[in-house]
Amino acid sequence: SQLIRHRPVWGIVLARFFLDPVWWLFLNWLPLYLNRVHGLELKSIAFAAVVPFLVSDIGSIGGGLAAAFLIGRGWSVDRTRKTLIVIGVSSMVLAGGVVTARDVYQAIAWMSAATFGFQFAVNNIQTLPSDYFPPEAVGSVAGMGGFGAGVGALLFTLSTGWIVDHFGYTPVLVITAVLPIIGTALLFLLGGRVRRLEVSL
To answer: What pLDDT digit, counting tens, does each position of 18-32 carry?
Structure first.
């Protein structure tokens, strides 16, 4: 494919590779974490575990509304996307705060910040294919981004169990705070200025 010759494609793929595992960590491991670390029973877990995902809905809607607002105020697409992605990723990094949580309420608060930030950021990352590429290429680039997300989530999910069994949750949570920074750095480095590219398909 001609598309893989374009650096922004790799930026999008790698951003999804490093960011999406954070979402899947909480989606797959949150109930077990709440039980093992905070001693919650099934009924309490059901109530507590839903909070980060309700908060993530706000991030998902907010990321799109914020982009529309800023572009409507005259901001460039480049400035808008990068600003909002940085805001979202900065919130994701707060996942590391779970390590210091003294009770389940603090843990849920830190996790909610992370899930909010993920949806806020990824909402704008998923829009990048249409910012960089013509309509006929958007589906392919978005699909490659989804592939990167799937591979990253699979590898991290599979390794999480081994890490938890041998070292506990702390290393996993620290890694969770670092991954979004790596993904964003690669996105900005490879993507350059967000603008429409001339692409031959």
So the answer is: 999 999 998 888 888
Measure the CA–CA gap between 135 and 39, rounded to whole angstroms: 50
Query: Residue 76: phi, psi to the nearest 5?
Result: -70, 160
Residue 33 to residue 55: CA distance in whole angstroms: 19
pTM of the model: 0.93
Q: Is 39 helix (H, G, I), strand (E, B) or coil?
A: coil
Nearest residue to 93 (alpha-carbon basis) of 186, 185, 179, 189? 179
Tokens at 172, concatenated: 């996993």
- Dig out the tokens for 73 from the structure: 């105020």
Tell me how far apart the alpha carbons of residues 133 and 5 are, in angstroms, rounded to a whole number: 13
First to last CA, the chain: 8
Q: Which residue has the tokens 């960590």?
A: 25
CA distance 25 to 36: 15
